[in-house]
Structures are given as C-alpha cells and as structure tokens.
Amino acid sequence: MARGSKPNTTGTAAPPAAEKPAEPPNGACGEGCTHDHAHSHEHSHAPSAAPAAGGERWLTSQQYKGIGKYLKPWGKPPTGTTFWIQIITTAAVIVISILKGVESTVAIVVSTGPAATVHAEQNPMVLASGICFGLFSLVLGAGYLLARRSAAAPPEVEAEEVVAAPKAKDGAPKEAKAKRREARSEEAQERQAIKSARLEAQLAEELKARDTDLAHRRQEVWAQAEAEGLSAADTQKRMWLVEQDHQERVALKERIHRVHEAAAKEGLSQEETHMRVNETIHMHEESRKMRQGQAKELRDLEQEAVKDGCLPAEVRRRVHSRKQAHAVELAAFETHREVITTVVQQCKAQNLKDEAIKQAVTQAKAKLTEDVHMKHRAWMMQEKKARALAAAALKESARYPPEVRNIMLSRVRIDGLKARPELNGRFGTVATYKAAADNKPGRLAVTVDGESAPVLLKMEALTVVGFDDQPLPLSEMTDEDGPPPLM
C-alpha cells in the first residue's frame, strides 16, 4: 500500500499489484530504508514506524481518536465499574503518551502482513481492546500475586485464627459429647439417688415392722412362760432365742440392702442383682449353720472341762478362748467370698485368661487358709500355756475352801476398800490364797492391773466379772439346735 493512502474500511482485499511494490535489488532499498542488508531480502518492506521528517507517524490522528472514543468513560460518577474503567483509561492514555514520546528515538518495525489483515490491525477498536486486555491482565496478575503472598505469610493474629478454626470445629463435637456424657452421668446419679432413697425408706419400714414384731413376740413368750409356770432361767432362755432370731433377720436385711446399693452403683441388671441377693442369702445361711456348730462345740467344751474338775474360772476361760478362735474362723469364712470376688474382678480388668484367673483364685484361697492356720497355731500355743497354769492352780487349790476354789483365777473388780480407796473400781485376777491363823479369814492375792506386786484383799471386796470386765450373766445359756432357720 502506498504511503499516505487511506485504510480500506470496507474489509475487501485490494488488488495484489497495487499493494506489493516491486522489490529493488539488494542494497538499493532507497533513502528511508532501515533494514539490515546483511541478510537476503526475503521479507516484504513495510512502512517505517519512524518516518522521515515531515512524514506521517505510525499512529495516525484518526486511530488516536478512535482509541479515545472507546476508552472514554460515559460521564457517570466514579463508582463501581466506572471507577476501574477510568483508572484503566488513564493508564492507557499514559501508555500511549509514552509510546508517542519515544517513537522519534526508537525504531519500531510493524509488519502489516498479508493484505487481508492490514485493515484489522489498523482498526482502532482492536488496538484499544488489546490495551484494555493487557491492563486487566496486569491488575489481575498483581492481585493474584498479593493474594498468594498473603496466604503464604499471614499475620500472627490471622494465623492463630486459621489454626484455631479447625480446632474449634473439631472441638465442637467433643464439647457436645462431653455435655451429653455429663447429662447422662447426672441422670444416672439422680436415678441412683432415688433408688437408694427408696431402698433406705423400704429398709426403715421393714426394721420398724420387725421391731414391732419383736415386741409382740416378747409379750407372747412372757405370757406362755407364765401359763406354763416356767422358771426365770427357762423364760430368759426363750427370750434369748427370740432376740437372736430378730438380730439374725436384721443383719440379713442390712446385707441385702448393701448388695442392692452396690448393684445400683455398678449398673447391674435386675437378673444379676437377684443372683447376688440369692448368693448373699446362701452365704448368710451357711454362716448361721457355722455359728450353730460353734455353739455346740462350746457346750461340749464346757461339759468336758466341768467333767475334768477344772476350776470355774478355768471353764469360763476355755469357753472364752474358744469363742475368740471361732470369731477368727467365722470372719475368714464371711470374707472368703468377698476376697474371691475381688480377685476375679481384678483379673478380668487385666484381661487375663481363664487359666490365669483360676490360678489367682487358687492362690487367694491358699493364702486365706494359711492365715487361718497360722492364727490357729498361735491360739493353740497360748491355750497350752494357759492350761498348764490352770492345772497347777487346780492342784494347789485342793486344800482351799470351796468358796475360794470358785473364785480362784477369776477376773474380779475391787470395791468397798477403806484402807486403800484408790483401788476401788479397778480390775485384777485372783492368783493365790493366803490362809490366816487363829481361825481368821484368809486373804486373796490379787494381781491388780497396773500394779507390780499382788495385793492381799478380802473376798468381800471382790466381784467376779467376765473377760470383758462386765458382770457375769445369771446364766450362760445356749440352745442345742441354735437359732431357728430364717424363713
């Protein structure tokens, strides 16, 4: 296309002969040629972007006006999109001004290409769109880089919030679970408290009813004894049986109440609770039978001691000593089941196998048996020494009066002394008898608790007491069959 010709705005291709001039020979491009002639002229010559003085510029006034037409805002307040369009327009004008300022010093080669694309490249709308696209790309790229930089290195507060946010999200379900767990625990505690209160009220009512029944049975015993003309000893014996039966029933009821409380705390089912109650009743009945056997053994021991001619104090001592041994055996029997149950629970908590549990139970039983045997051997040694002393006292008391024989080796309380009132109310044991001359009453040598030497006292100042320092009962009665079985 000839210099200075107007662009083809119709969009039709111009004749090739008119658009492409003849190629001059190598090195003869003319005065305004700025090409590098070191290479072969295989390209087409385009108009120079830096024309000679007085020539046309690379951006015509018509093109510049077209760019301004498309970039000019539409006169509305700079809000929203309008603001950014004005910013981009200003930037576009600045860029165009810079290009126009340096076009005289920088040689820009613009290749027009084929004739069919010349008019599109010179169209002002295309150039304006390109500038806008470039500026938009620049703004978006800068924003993207800033966003990436902020995400890579956030402030400390934002970083803490970012870290705390997932924790808060994860903690929310945990807090909800904890609240639900606390609510369930409170409900369980309330149910347990209600159940315990109900059991307490039920136990109180049953005890009250049993007390009423005991009073009624006592009245019946007294009426029956009067009707039959029984002695005071026989009447007291029957009353003792009634009271023993009452105590047995009360003790069993208290044990059942404790079983219910323990089952409620452990959250056992009704069936498991019922099994434990039945086991408790069975153990209580076995314990009752064991006490019956011990009572029969005590009666046999007492009869044997009397038959052997032992002193009355020695008979009471043997019975008391055997009672202590029976108490140890009974305690071992009653705690046997509890110890075994505890061992089994501990083994199950450690997830041990059945063989290990059986071995642990066997070891626990062996330990309980060994403890009972050790205590029994110690009791036998003490009993042997006590019987040796009693035999010597019996031999010595053969020449004593009968009233002295009845009080020898007895536990006594001192009362009514005028010469030594500080001994009144104290306890001791009668050791020997000192006979007096001239038909005067003799004195008893009493080993007073806390005194180093025996004290000679008259028989009138002494009162026989039991081994618990309490007055002896009128009679120590036992029943051959023991208390009646619980119904």
UniProtKB/TrEMBL annotation:
<feature type="compositionally biased region" description="Basic and acidic residues">
    <location>
        <begin position="33"/>
        <end position="45"/>
    </location>
</feature>
<protein>
    <submittedName>
        <fullName>Uncharacterized protein</fullName>
    </submittedName>
</protein>
<keyword id="KW-0472">Membrane</keyword>
<feature type="transmembrane region" description="Helical">
    <location>
        <begin position="126"/>
        <end position="147"/>
    </location>
</feature>
<feature type="compositionally biased region" description="Low complexity">
    <location>
        <begin position="46"/>
        <end position="55"/>
    </location>
</feature>
<feature type="compositionally biased region" description="Basic and acidic residues">
    <location>
        <begin position="167"/>
        <end position="176"/>
    </location>
</feature>
<feature type="region of interest" description="Disordered">
    <location>
        <begin position="163"/>
        <end position="189"/>
    </location>
</feature>
<feature type="compositionally biased region" description="Low complexity">
    <location>
        <begin position="1"/>
        <end position="19"/>
    </location>
</feature>
<keyword id="KW-0812">Transmembrane</keyword>
<feature type="region of interest" description="Disordered">
    <location>
        <begin position="1"/>
        <end position="55"/>
    </location>
</feature>
<keyword id="KW-1133">Transmembrane helix</keyword>
<feature type="transmembrane region" description="Helical">
    <location>
        <begin position="81"/>
        <end position="99"/>
    </location>
</feature>
